[in-house]
């Protein structure tokens, strides 16, 4: 039952409305109680002008309406409150939150009865939703593509871009564009080595 409710909300025109409603009515406690920790959580960083929940809702509303992308958007920062630290200057940090959130998404989605293939798709998208600070260069790009999966590259970049759109500076995509260009260059240069069924055109 909860799976259908959640799917219907995530695939609606403005899914944040439904998520906020679940929180207001108390129904979210029965579905994904972990979401409640994000409400009102001050991120204490100039990169964000919203709490974790409102940032998540901005990402959710800005991403294209496929279930795996919308679910990844909903859960991409689910473990941020658990990873929160403050440095000596009072700035908030969330080291490793993308890894922790990916792991937590598996627990949540299994609990809700989603199938293993769907869970794996969402997990990997969340794991790589924060590529901004990843040290990816031409020597590591092949490994990066293999880790993400060529068939997931477009969705992974889509989630990264939506994540940036939900931040204080919603127009700076330089870090994503840099990695996207490297992936595209690698795929073009190695297209003869890649089977047609595994190839992908990065949008």
TrEMBL record:
Gene3D superfamilies: cca-adding enzyme, domain 2. Residues 58-134 form the HD domain. Keywords: Hydrolase, Nucleotide-binding, Nucleotidyltransferase, Transferase. InterPro entries: HD_domain (IPR006674), tRNA_CCA-adding_enzyme (IPR050124). Its EC number is 2.7.7.72, 3.1.3.-, 3.1.4.-. It comes from the Bacteria. The keyword NAD does not apply. One of its GO terms (molecular function) is CCA tRNA nucleotidyltransferase activity. This is tRNA nucleotidyltransferase (CCA-adding enzyme).
